[in-house]
């Protein structure tokens, strides 16, 4: 993959390079220096005529814009999208989806939802996954989340939901959490939210990385072909690295150790050339099948199970360039569900219809008026010709004599299409007959709030169900109102009585009634994240860009470390050497070894696996409490652990393996890989077994008895 040149985008014309330049005012006037204001005497009063100081301070006073009400904390990246083939040509006039020779520039913004700009990355929350396609037919925004459903069915409820999940008004507490009274009061009174709440309580709310996170368009949209025929569509993003999550205990530790964990991970991966890749898939549903399901396709709290409509892969996105200015790009980018191109249209989903109004309205206040689309990050790559004039932030110097249609003084320009058959690249709304009584009521087909919440629960592996159970207990334990806690458990009982009773016992409320009569046993294999995962090959995803820690000290088997590091590097993983302090140590071979990070400056939760090498490693782990905690915490969080040579005895003494130091190789189902060999004698089988264990992401069998191979 090649890093795309920054000149690929028209916005680059607005970039500035301050290297080798002189300081000036905004009017281009050279400034003598900017360390002292203009005064009457060196100790005298500051003079109002100091236009440079006034300009500098005034701009500073006004340089903050309102943060987003939701999705305030984000991270962005540039890249490109390419369709695999022409298979969608029979369904849509959207050229970027149907022409494999096209390379479409994109900008993606990942985000949390509830927290402010200063909140941590690893909170329990929904994640945004918004993609702006700069297509030759105009800008298209796929404003997605990492969960395929939403909390509400109608957009008129969106202010209520956001008010409920935001910090409570008296204390402005808690920040970036749903673990408080008002959110859960909303949940029990709106059972339509239960499906989304099941996702929120699952590991999906704790992504390991933005690069390892799925994305979903949430709504049912419509593809429209050249003849005006429509097909319902659901959009899916699938990360090539696999879909992986953190554990809740890790998230809380990471929020302190590195609150920028996810945005740093994205930035570092792109800078290292390990470009995140995502596959775009679609579920296509004929309009003739609109009413064939036991749910309403227009209901945004429902998924279309992949067993009923498979996801077809149609293209790939690669993110290969970091922004150069966070504010100008990531903060000012404006997404809008109604930014569509020919071949993509809406449905009557009442939440989608409200979003089509709300996003534009929001940008007007955030970005200072109606010309925000002229900002470099929002500007299309195609030419723009409108009769819209003036307003705040107008960048264009209009010279055309007319600003109205129809006109003769400007030769009728800009022209609109009045012909019976407009060109194929003109946007044409899907033609459909609409009739009905004007009524403020929800369709009866939206009334099933429990079936798909139970589908999600049934689809989880045992360990995932335990995590959901623990999440409900944690969240509801923060709710001060016992009445709300009880009502929530009564709602959960409609999803699974056993889950509800277990939660009720933990949060101190009466066990709810058994609602089992209405339950079903349906499941979807695509919903679990535990390997093997539906949609992946038999082999687990690679370990590319994974961070692995090796505990080292003076006398470590540096020869073995180098051999293992070389093998891990060849797989795209990064090995950090964690020692008592930063600097150089002396290895067993007599050579100097550079310590990457000192134990006091890092934590095991920032790594995906840990290695205990041979040599005099026992001296570190048995005498340094931080080193011992690092090892045991990684094991506790179900991460792969490897040891070789004398390191095997260290694991045995700490109860992490039953192996003695004699076996050539023991690779158990608990993800503990050991060998008595060391140095250049490290077996290839040992290295391969460790790599495969890391690729699994977590070793959920860790609570079972050892099985030696």
UniProtKB/TrEMBL annotation:
The lineage of its organism: Bacteria, Bacillati, Actinomycetota, Actinomycetes, Mycobacteriales. Residues 1-26 are annotated as: Disordered. Pfam families: Catalase, Catalase-rel, Catalase_C. The gene is katE. This is Catalase. CDD domains: GATase1_catalase. The active site is at 71, 145. Residues 1-18 have a biased composition (Basic and acidic residues). Heme binds at residues 68, 109, 158, 355, 359, 366. One of its GO terms (molecular function) is heme binding. Belongs to the catalase family. HPII subfamily. Keywords: Heme, Hydrogen peroxide, Iron, Metal-binding, Oxidoreductase, Peroxidase. GO terms for cellular component: cytosol.
């Amino acid at each position: 993959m090649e890093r795309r040149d920054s000149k690929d985008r028209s916005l680059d014309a607005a970039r500035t390079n301050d290297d080798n330049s002189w300081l000036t005012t905004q009017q281009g006037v050279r400034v003598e220096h900017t360390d002292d204001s203009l005064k009457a005497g060196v100790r005298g009063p500051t003079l109002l005529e100091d236009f440079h100081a006034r300009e500098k301070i005034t701009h500073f006073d006004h340089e903050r814009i309102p943060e987003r009400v939701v999705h305030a904390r984000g991270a962005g990246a540039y890249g490109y999208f390419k369709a695999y083939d022409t298979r969608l040509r029979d369904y849509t006039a959207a050229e970027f989806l149907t022409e494999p020779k096209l390379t479409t520039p994109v900008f993606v913004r990942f985000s949390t939802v509830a927290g402010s700009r200063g909140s941590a990355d690893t909170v329990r929350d929904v994640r945004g996954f918004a993609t702006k396609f700069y297509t030759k037919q105009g800008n298209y925004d796929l404003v997605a989340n990492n969960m395929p459903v939403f909390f509400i069915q109608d957009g008129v409820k969106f202010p209520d939901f956001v008010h409920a999940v935001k910090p409570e008004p008296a204390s402005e507490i808690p920040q970036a959490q749903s673990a408080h009274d008002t959110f859960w009061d909303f949940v029990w009174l709106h059972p339509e939210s239960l499906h989304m709440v099941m996702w929120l309580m699952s590991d999906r709310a704790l992504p390991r990385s933005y690069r390892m996170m799925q994305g979903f368009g949430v709504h049912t949209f419509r593809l429209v072909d050249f003849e005006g025929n429509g097909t319902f569509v659901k959009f899916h993003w699938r990360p090539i690295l696999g879909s992986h999550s953190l554990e809740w205990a890790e998230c809380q530790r990471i929020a302190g150790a590195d609150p920028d964990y996810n945005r740093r991970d994205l930035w570092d991966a792109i800078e290292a050339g390990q470009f995140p890749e995502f596959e775009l898939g679609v579920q296509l549903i004929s309009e003739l099948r609109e009413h064939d399901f036991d749910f309403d396709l227009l209901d945004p709290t429902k998924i279309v199970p992949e067993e009923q409509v498979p996801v077809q892969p149609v293209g790939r996105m690669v993110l290969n360039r970091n922004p150069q200015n966070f504010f100008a790009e990531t903060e000012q980018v404006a997404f809008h569900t109604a930014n569509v191109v020919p071949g993509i249209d809406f449905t009557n989903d009442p939440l989608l219809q409200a979003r089509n109004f709300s996003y534009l309205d929001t940008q007007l206040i955030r970005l200072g008026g109606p010309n925000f689309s002229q900002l470099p990050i929002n500007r299309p790559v195609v030419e723009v010709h409108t009769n819209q004039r003036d307003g705040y932030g107008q960048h264009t110097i209009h010279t055309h004599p007319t600003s109205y249609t129809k006109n003769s003084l400007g030769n009728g320009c800009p022209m609109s299409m009045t012909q019976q058959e407009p060109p194929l690249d003109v946007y044409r709304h899907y033609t459909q007959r609409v009739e009905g009584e004007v009524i403020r009521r929800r369709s009866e087909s939206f009334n099933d709030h429990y079936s798909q919440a139970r589908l999600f629960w049934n689809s989880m592996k045992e360990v995932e169900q335990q995590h959901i159970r623990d999440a409900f207990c944690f969240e509801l334990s923060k709710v001060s109102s016992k009445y709300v806690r009880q009502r929530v458990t009564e709602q959960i009982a409609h999803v699974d009585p056993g889950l509800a009773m277990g939660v009720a016992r933990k949060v101190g409320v009466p066990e709810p009634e058994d609602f089992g009569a209405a339950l079903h046993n349906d499941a979807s294999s695509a919903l679990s994240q535990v390997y093997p995962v539906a949609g992946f090959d038999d082999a687990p995803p690679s370990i590319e860009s994974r961070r692995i820690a090796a505990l080292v000290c003076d006398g470590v088997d540096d020869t073995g470390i180098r051999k293992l590091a070389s093998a891990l590097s060849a797989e795209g993983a990064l090995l950090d050497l964690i020692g008592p302090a930063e600097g150089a140590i002396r290895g067993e071979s007599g050579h100097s070894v550079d310590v990457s990070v000192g134990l006091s400056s890092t934590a095991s939760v920032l790594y995906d696996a840990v290695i205990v090498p041979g040599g005099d490693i026992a001296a570190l782990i048995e005498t340094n409490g931080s080193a011992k905690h690092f090892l045991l915490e990684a094991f506790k969080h179900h991460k792969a652990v490897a040891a070789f040579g004398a390191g095997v005895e260290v694991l045995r003494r700490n109860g992490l393996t039953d192996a003695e130091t004699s076996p050539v190789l023991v690779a158990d189902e608990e993800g503990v890989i050991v060998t008595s060999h060391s140095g250049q004698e490290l077996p290839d089988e040992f290295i391969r077994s460790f790599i495969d264990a890391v690729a699994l992401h977590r070793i959920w069998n860790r609570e079972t008895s050892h099985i030696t191979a």
